[in-house]
Design brief:
The protein contains 6 helices and 8 strands. The chain has 185 residues and is α+β, with helices and mostly antiparallel strands. α5 crosses α6. The longest helix is centred in the middle third of the chain and has 10 residues.
Length: 185
């Protein structure tokens, strides 16, 4: 996937703040505008010290990523993770980086925050980033099926799975309201 570098105003660039990336101090820095740079010339690199890194889009998740080298073996990171680690601090256990404006390529420090997985999912749902229920291209069930599955608790899950063309696990999750939570009855 092609990625176009964002453009910044002169004012933004004049107030840009650079901080060393934790675990890569003296090698790489991150900016509050979501940019990354190499502070030293890397062995074998044609780019000079101070070169702004050009991220690429990850194939599956549509986040921007870069590969850093240095005292450790080369490793690929999501840009938003590095910016959050640098400007917000270490990621608390069980939390994820969230883009407040839901734009996965807007890695400005002010646009990032740490949320639990449940909060992150709720944020995505609130901003219609996830396709739920029949809107999902993977859905076999229809919204009208859910009240029937939940009401017919006397029929074994195996039989319900055959009747609706899904797995026994799916029937269990629908009945326990782990799936199709947005259907009330």
């Amino acid at each position: 996937m092609a990625y176009n570098q964002p453009t910044f105003t002169d004012e933004e660039l004049q107030t840009e703040e650079w901080r060393p990336i934790p675990d890569y101090e003296a090698l790489y820095s991150a900016s509050n505008l979501g940019r990354l740079r190499a502070d030293t010339r890397q062995k074998g690199s044609i780019y000079p010290a101070g070169h702004i890194l050009k991220p690429s889009a990850s194939p599956r998740r549509q986040y921007l990523q870069v590969t850093l080298a240095g005292t450790k073996p080369r490793k690929t990171y999501f840009v938003h993770v590095l910016i959050a680690r640098t400007f917000i601090g270490p990621r608390p256990e069980g939390q994820e980086v969230n883009h407040k404006d839901t734009i996965q390529t807007n890695n400005r420090a002010l646009n990032l925050e740490y949320l639990t997985h449940a909060e992150h999912e709720a944020h995505a749902a609130l901003h219609s980033q996830k396709a739920y229920g029949e809107k999902s291209n993977r859905a076999t069930l229809k919204a009208a099926d859910i009240p029937i599955i939940r009401a017919m608790t006397d029929i074994p899950p195996q039989e319900m799975a055959i009747r609706f063309g899904v797995t026994v696990a799916t029937i269990g999750k629908v009945r326990r309201r782990e799936r199709w939570k947005h259907i009330v009855p």
